């Protein structure tokens, strides 16, 4: 049941810290080394293709970035496009289907194509014994528990964390960076909890609820959550929302920016990536758009943003998970203000079983 929550979506957003605890439970062997039952220790894929749809595709984009950073060739593909032009499957290729339900027709079809091409397959899924879990060579569970609301929330966070674990195990590297990442992973559920208790997202959502459109920008690991922030916003508010790579803005989308289109930007830390994003945010502000920064407060962005949504400081790789919680709340409270049917948005189904 929804308990004290008005909607399943809200309940599931609030379940995220426990879902992440469950996702991490017993998945470390000694100290900083990850051990996932689904994959034999020492297995090193030569290349990884991640296939997925919708929110799960955004998780796949994030996973591909992480794997590449750790020296593994990796690409994310929209499942519905994969079968039309599958990339060549070479020896040692692994195809990972990222699918919460394990029943999405496009993803199953991409996985079947991969099997036919001779790739090893892995289902990264929530539902135990789902079709993807049964048909793939192996299944890696995200352990989120049941998700009722059509909009995926806690399962996205669990997908990202599972992809971090997968990248750590399959690259086999241990370094200071790995150690820092592992210790940040163990603190992540508490950070999510704290964010949920302190967020200003309801106020921000109300302030901008009558806007004509919403844009989300991010760079590097923040790019997939910009896409996800926009998807969540459009599917439950029915308002126009678009996510862009921060660097792409001036190549066209900047023409859409007005005083009536708030731009949400996530900036974490103060490295070169953050500074470039801050420069992009300044361009938006100079065009008169309201600017909302989701940030850990390290860069200079909070000095000129119109509103700031704070996230706890954490490892840069994991920060998108916290940024995304703010985006989920923003979409939720905007939709609530507009009186939308949050758990069952029009025209959408939880599990899409036709291609
Ligand atoms: C959006 C959403 C969808 C799903 C997509 C894939 O909130 O839930 O975009 O992510 O239909 O579903 P799964 O992950 O079950 O394959």
From TrEMBL:
Molecular function terms from GO: carbohydrate derivative binding; glutamine-fructose-6-phosphate transaminase (isomerizing) activity
Positions of transmembrane segments: none
Taxonomic classification: Archaea, Methanobacteriati, Methanobacteriota, Stenosarchaea group, Halobacteria
Protein name per the record: Glutamine--fructose-6-phosphate aminotransferase [isomerizing]
Gene symbol of the encoding locus: glmS
GO cellular component: cytoplasm
Source species: Haladaptatus paucihalophilus DX253
Main location as per UniProt: cytoplasm
Localization annotation: Cytoplasm
Keywords: Aminotransferase, Cytoplasm, Glutamine amidotransferase, Repeat, Transferase
